[in-house]
């Protein structure tokens, strides 16, 4: 399985996804703006998070092309995954509005799974709710034709699916305890500003939530990787030709 991973911000990290098992090719657009030339060389696409908004084309001119690329992967029946900013880019790609600065969440939070989510392969192993890490201020409207899979009191659209295997998750399921430790070390000033007291309480919070969140994140990662099916992609591509 060949997966193109678009990193929108330096040292984002794959966390739980790295353990799920796939051949990764990195595209560090924060460094050079280079995206995959086409969809033929990869079986799936992952778009990671970042500090920019999904509409910040002036500072990040690759964003419109990334949105179009995600649609091309999805239209070909290939698996697509957008995490946090990535989910916001997917929403934009499929014609939905982004809402900037209206839904701030940080730290480990409880996420509710919808009836559709409990029946969906991505979240079906997690029951009616689960704990996972969040770090965002923006959110988005649900794209037309998308299925809402998860929600919270702050952001109605925590996870959605379009078609066979195009998924967006507002939450950072890939952010296991090791990734959170890395973020804590790299961004202490930002965290102290947006979540006063969190740094001081991190050890207690991690002890209380970390194991369950890591297990949920790994289950989601493995479920998504299981949807990358090159043989099925070939059949779908031939049918659409």
UniProtKB/TrEMBL annotation:
Domain named Glutamine amidotransferase: residues: 39-176
Any single Pfam family the record assigns to this protein: GATase
InterPro entries with a match to the protein in the record: ChyE-like, Class_I_gatase-like, GATASE
Ranges in a coiled coil: none
One GO CC term on file: cytosol
CDD domains, per database record: GATase1_1
Superkingdom, natural source: Bacteria
Cited SUPFAM superfamilies: Class I glutamine amidotransferase-like
PROSITE patterns: GATASE_TYPE_1
PANTHER family for this protein: GLUTAMINE AMIDOTRANSFERASE YLR126C-RELATED
Protein name: GMP synthase
Organism for this UniProt entry: Rhizobium sophoriradicis
Classification of source organism: Bacteria, Pseudomonadati, Pseudomonadota, Alphaproteobacteria, Hyphomicrobiales
């Amino acid at each position: 399985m060949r997966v193109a991973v678009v990193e929108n911000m330096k040292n984002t990290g794959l966390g739980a996804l790295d353990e799920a098992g796939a051949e990764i090719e990195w595209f560090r657009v924060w460094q050079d703006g280079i995206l995959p030339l086409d969809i033929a060389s990869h079986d799936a696409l992952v778009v990671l998070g970042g500090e920019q908004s999904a509409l910040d084309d002036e500072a990040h001119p690759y964003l419109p092309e990334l949105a179009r690329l995600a649609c091309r992967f999805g239209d070909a029946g290939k698996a697509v995954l957008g995490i946090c900013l990535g989910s916001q880019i997917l929403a934009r790609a499929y014609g939905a509005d982004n809402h900037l600065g209206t839904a701030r969440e940080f730290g480990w939070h409880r996420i509710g799974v919808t009836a559709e989510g409990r029946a969906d392969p991505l979240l079906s192993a997690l029951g009616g709710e689960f704990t996972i890490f969040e770090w965002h201020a923006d959110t988005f409207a649900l794209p037309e034709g998308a299925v809402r899979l998860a929600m919270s009191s702050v952001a109605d659209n925590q996870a959605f699916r379009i078609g066979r295997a195009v998924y967006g998750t507002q939450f950072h399921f890939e952010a296991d305890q090791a990734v959170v430790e890395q973020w804590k070390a790299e961004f202490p000033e930002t965290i102290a500003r947006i979540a006063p007291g969190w740094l001081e309480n991190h050890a207690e919070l991690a002890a209380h939530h970390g194991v369950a969140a890591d297990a949920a994140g790994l289950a989601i990662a493995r479920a998504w990787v299981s949807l990358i099916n090159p043989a099925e992609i070939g059949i779908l591509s031939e049918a659409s030709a």
